[in-house]
Design goal:
The protein has two domains: 10-94, no CATH class; 106-253, Gcn5-related N-acetyltransferase (GNAT) (Aminopeptidase, 3-Layer(aba) Sandwich). It has seven helices and eleven strands. The protein has helices at residues 10-17, 59-66, 78-90, 131-146, 155-168, 210-224, 238-246, and strands at residues 25-30, 36-43, 46-51, 73-77, 97-106, 122-124, 171-176, 179-189, 193-201, 228-234, 250-259. An eleven-stranded mixed beta sheet has the order 1-2-3-4-11-5-10-9-8-7-6, with helices on both faces. α4 (131-146) packs across α5 (155-168). It is globular. The mean pLDDT is 90.
Length: 263
């Protein structure tokens, strides 16, 4: 079921693959003949459902689920999240914020020739000596793109997140006039694909095709490794959506993340 939904549910697939290291759980529902009809990946107080049955979920399934775990977020294919959130509301669990995304994919070399970026722009792999600049860029990215409304950035956690990405994921940075002005990285590896995230260009350097150049080179290298590429981008972020469309990404579906103040 996960492999069938891989392109639309990269986070669930990646968390499933790493579930033992992440202390995650997988909740499954089977129909009357024993066939797997739905599953929910639980990791980091987040729920990632993949639902294949019309009348999901039975009350006893949800009662058992929410009786054991806190819920801070719910994410997945938009229709799955909408079905799940309706049942959660019946149990008194209401989202404090709902964010809608486009799921975008590319499975070929990107179109990048016409987007060279500004003169002197260098796209390269980061070095350990770049860490403080990376931490600053990632903190700005989290403030702008990740934190839900009303949440404050925890700088220590943000630094740890940056260090984990540096150690465990693939990453490129954009350097202009000796200053790191942008970054891009993978944030999930699944059965046949990479998920790209953490794409950020310092506000002072936007509108210069830096994101286009950086993303193009990064995607080209990832595709050459024999994997497809997926990402999700806020529907409200027209500039980012334009970057991905211009290098050859296609929009294949809708994704939603709900945040809950209390688990």
């Amino acid at each position: 079921m996960l492999k069938h939904n891989e392109r639309l549910c990269m986070n669930a697939c990646g968390r499933y693959i790493r579930r033992e290291a992440l202390n995650g759980e997988v909740w499954t529902l089977h129909d009357e003949i024993g066939e797997l009809s739905a599953l929910i990946v639980h990791s980091g107080n987040g729920l990632m459902p993949i639902l294949h049955v019309r009348n999901f979920p039975p009350p006893q399934f949800l009662c058992g689920l929410f009786g054991k775990i806190p819920v801070n977020s719910l994410q997945g294919k938009e229709d799955d999240v909408i079905r799940m959130e309706a049942e959660m509301e019946k149990m008194g669990l209401f989202a404090s914020e709902k964010i809608d995304f486009d799921v975008m994919c590319i499975d070929r070399q990107p179109d990048t020739v016409q987007y060279a970026g500004p003169a002197g722009l260098v796209i390269r792999k980061p070095q350990l000596s770049d860490m403080e600049s990376l931490v600053a860029l990632h903190a700005a990215y989290e403030k702008e793109e990740v934190l839900s409304s009303g949440k404050e950035l925890n700088l220590s956690v943000s630094r740890m997140n940056t260090q984990k990405i540096f150690a465990n994921q693939q990453m490129l940075v954009a350097e202009l006039d000796g200053r790191l002005v942008g970054k891009i990285n993978t944030n999930a590896v699944t059965f046949t694909r990479y998920q790209v995230g953490g794409v950020y260009v310092h506000p002072e350097y936007r509108g210069m095709r830096i994101a286009q150049k950086m993303a193009g080179e990064f995607i080209a290298d990832l595709v050459s490794q024999g994997r497809g590429i997926s990402l999700f981008v806020k529907k409200s972020n027209a500039a980012a959506r334009s970057v991905y469309l211009n290098i050859g990404f296609e929009t294949i579906g809708d994704y939603r993340i709900n945040y809950y103040n209390k688990g």
